Structure formats: C-alpha cells, structure tokens
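Hi there, hope your week has been kind to you so far. Do you reckon you could talk me through the fold, stretch by stretch? I've dropped the whole record in just underneath, so have a look:
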Amino acid sequence: MRKFKIPHVFIFLFWIIVLCSVLTYFIPSGSYERTTREYEDRTQTVVVPGSYEEMPKHYSLKGVLVGEEVEGKSTPVSLLGVLGAIPKGLGDSAVLVFYVFIIGAVITLIQHTGTFNAFLFGLISRFRNKPKQLLFLIYMTLFTGSSFMGIGPETIALIPVFFFLSKQLGYDRLFGLGLLNIPILLGWTSGVTNPFTVQIAQIIAELQIGSGMGLRLVLFAALAATGFFFLMRYGDRVKKNPSLSLMPDDRFELDEFGSFEQVKLERKHIYILIFFVLSYASVLTAVKTIGWGLIEMSACFIGITIVITKIAGMTGDESMAAFTKGLEIMIIPALVVGVARGISVVLEEGMIIDTLIHHASVALMSMPKIVAAEGMLVFQSTLNFFIPSASGQALVSMPLMTPMADLLGISRQTAVLAFILGDGLSNIIIPTNGVLMAMLGLAKISFEKWFRFVLPLFIISIIIAVAFIAVAVLIGY
C-alpha cells in the first residue's frame, strides 16, 4: 500500500482552490450588510449583526465554464474562475509578495557581507558550553516581539541564519525552522499587545486597548514554556540519535543560501549590524505608531539595502549580484503567498463565507456559556482557514461575536480571547497560511513533514487554549 504524500505546495494549494470552488455549488450563498465606522484616524468596514440575507444561485452552462453575472443572484465559481483565482490572488497580495521579495534580497545581501557569519560564530563560541541559554535567549526574543509587537512575515528571510545555527549545534532542519517559527506563532497567539489581533478586536468590541492584559500575560508564560520545552525535547532527541529526526535522509546542505564559512569580525560588520538593527527597529516603531504599511516598509528596506552596500564597500555589480540572488531564493515563498490568497478569492466570489459565519453564529447562540465560548474558539480556528488574515477576520467576526457574547452573558473580553486563540493556534498548522507556506517553501520542508513535527504541539496548545477560555468564563474575565 502506497504511503500518502502531500504534493508540491503549489499543487496542494491549487486542489484546495478547486475544492472550495466546488463548495460554492452546494453551500447556499448569502451576505451581511457592512458599514464603516471611524476610530481615531482609522476607517473600519464592519459587519452589521442580524443583517444576513441568503441569495439565490444562478446555474447555467456559461456560468460553469466562464461565469455569468445575474442581478440579484450569485453564480458559483466557474472553471475560468478557478484558474483565474491564482492571478487574482497574486494581484490582491501584490504588495505582500513584493515585500517578501525585498526582505529576502536584503538579508541575502547582508549575508554576502559576512556580517551574520561573523556574529553567529562569535555567539556560538561565547555560548559553546551553554548552547541552550543561547537558544532560550533567541526563542524569548522572538516570542516577546511577536506577542507585543506582532512581528511575523518580517522574519521569513532569517531562515538561512537559523538553519546555520541549528546545523552548527547538531540539530536538524526542522529544529532550525521551529526555533524561528514556533516562538513567532505562539507569541502571536498569546497576543499581549499584538496590534494586529488583540488591539483591533478590542477596538471593535469597544473595550479599552490593552485591557485584560493580566490573563494574557499568564497565557504568554504558559505558551512560551510549552513551545520551548517541545522544541528542546525534539532537538535533544535528534542530537542524541539523528535517525530519530523526521527528516533522517536530509543532508541539511545550505549551499543555496551562500557561504557560511567562519569570518573574522571586522568594524564594517559591526557598523552593518548596528545600522540594520536600528533601522529595523525604527521601521517596526513606525508601523505601530504612525500606521505604516507594507509599501512604506518595502521602501525603507530598499533604502537600507543602498546604505549597507556603501558601508560594506561593495561595487554596484557585486551588490546587485547578491541582491538578485536573494530575489531568486524568495521566488517560491513569495508566489505561495499569492496562490494561497486565491482560496479566499473563490470563497468571496462564490459568496459563501458569510453563510458559514451566519450558521456558525446561530449555532453558538443555543449553547451554554462555557460551551458557546469554546465554540467561538472553534469558529475562529475554522474561519482562519478561509480568511487567513487576523485583521480581516476581526472585521468580519468580532462585530458578530460582540453582541453574541452580550446575549450569552459572556464578557466581551472573553470573546476577544477566543478570537486571538482561534486565529493564532490555527496558523501553526493550516495550509492556507501564506506566510507559513512561504517559510516551508524557502526551508525546503514539505507541509507533510511540518504537520507531523508540529501536531503534538498544536494539540497541547489547543488544550491550553480550551482551559484558558473556560477559566475566563468562570472568573468573568
């Protein structure tokens, strides 16, 4: 009997697009009314609770083949629509795709200067007798940055650096990606002050921004400890017996990422790293304080590239060779982001997302408090498969979850907690998470291998989430 194997990431995502398109023929179409609301300097489009209306479907041969618009009716996604979902998804994600290309090129350029090599060899030497202290320091830095500042996609291009560290310390490829990805994903889930999840949700729920932080800090500690223990348990097992790796036949070669030879630390390396860290911190600060988006961030990274080439004393040809190599490395990760967006495209065009939301919310209304609160967690996790965007989910689901929580006697703060847990934990494992799939593409790790690696952590984290939701209901959080 042949062992089932998940196909290449593009084929895998394409079949998900096909499946979702088929569903548009059988799941009723419908929509909510939406309205805009002003909050400080932001304009938000939110769902109007109770406004859902089902819409009749129009079926025709033309509609099946190329699509056909009929006033007052929805048309299931056509064959042409299935194929067109990919370029539309790439178009919708154009800014993010370009951003992924740019950060990959910048990191590759810095790698070419030898800066990462020099500092990494220095750190490995400094913590030679205490490597776990170094790993814990890196882990908690990422975890804290994700939980408090919402860092995530910005770290994609750091994968080669983490691979090098993992290989030098005797671990495997999955450990290297896990050291980067697990603290990012679990930190995002804890959402102490994450501006992309908890702050948006609290704004919509009309709660004070930053309120309820106490319980989220406890969640922060619980998830941080769980993730690090899981990662080190796997790493120790692989280091002791490499055959126990989930990728035992992987030669773990890093040639495609450039040279990782030992480099003597020079003054230019110090200047480059200081400039990059300060610039990076300034960009993130601007994102959080003055609302910069991916376009402004991409522009800054282009500027950072120019300055670094000057500090390193690189010629124009040399710098462009390193820059374009970075673009080449990021081709698959960048395109995966756009292809994954095609899933949302077909669901929106088939008008079935609002139907799924409506029926889920109706079902939750008939449940006891704790069960309904746990149902919110399940609902958000499921919604994340179809709308893999935290802020996008918040604008769709929180306007529904807020009045529902009021009717059920559940605090709005608990509804926010269910939202951030449902969004965050499902990101660990769903194939529609474009950033995750981009990381797997760059790391040359199949989704199947990642799934097997992270499934135990996902299950443990879900149990923790369920417990926190129950506690929140019981204490009137």
Residues 94-337 form one domain. The first helix runs from residue 9 to 23. The radius of gyration is 23 Å.
